[in-house]
Amino acid sequence: MTISHTEGARAPHYRRLGSDGEFQLFESTVSTASNWGPAIQHGSPPLALLTKAIEELYRDRPQLRVGRLLLDILGAIPVAPVRVRAWVQRPGARISLAVAEMCPSDAPDRPVARVSAWLLAISDTTDVRTDRYAPLAEGSAVDTAHGWLGAPGYLETVSWRNQATEPGQAAQAWMSPLVPLVDDEPTTPLQRLAQVVDSANGIGAVLDPADFVFLNTDTAVYLHRAPRGDDFGLRARASIGPDGIGVTTAEIFDRDGFIGTSAQTLLVQRAR
Questions:
Q1: CA of 133: how far to CAs of 44, 82, 251, 256, 257, in Å?
Q2: Contact 116/99 with Cβ under 8 angstroms?
Q3: H/E element holding 263?
Q4: How many alpha carbons lie under 13 Å from residue 35 in its C-beta half-sphere?
Q5: 0.90 exceeded by the pTM?
Q6: What is the pLDDT of residues 84-135, one digit of tens each?
Q7: 233 Cβ neighbours under 8 A, 6+ residues apart
Q8: CB–CB of 161/145 below 8 Å?
């Protein structure tokens, strides 16, 4: 069945199709479609789905928490059926490394996305807690949310409230997912953060997308505190080098304050 853009805006990012051995099978809905093109996925839904696969591996080990997520985009991620598998790469009682991969269903030996996650043992360090930044307050949203207004797909599935900032300051936006990740399955706060955090590249953009393509090849997320809720603030800024490579960095907040940082490598090319 063909899903219209309006229907896609209400659809979850993925629909579960069952399993095949070690793989979980999912249909990618048009809600995952990238602002760069309707046939490829935005980076946030794959990051969130692979994060879900990793969290499910550790469901019975709540003493370990994700301290870092690293999404590597290995190729164009199609808006099509996909296969997902996850495994523990480095087991440990205090430090463990997990990996999850996504492959197109018609090319099961060609991963297009991979997430690795360091999980660390939690302990009580309340007495030495230190936040580098004060909480980020949300003000009135500006009229233009981003540079891709009207692009169907993923951008329609997120509440995107761009904030007014002074010239030369990092851009700020508050975001929350408007649709579930998978069908009506519960979505954890970490998965909800993953549903939006790849958009730091768009928030911190210093180039006009009408003139330049700036695709991120990865998204690294470092979390000194577990996220809470479903509303997240990003303060982001890109730096563009002289040879077509850039980096976007961001500070990440929830409603209770600063929770982490992210970084993305950019391929920068002229659109015309």
A1: 24, 39, 9, 12, 8
A2: yes
A3: strand 257-270
A4: 21
A5: yes
A6: 999 999 999 999 999 999 999 999 899 999 999 999 999 999 999 999 999 9
A7: 136, 138, 172, 173, 174, 175, 252, 253, 254
A8: yes
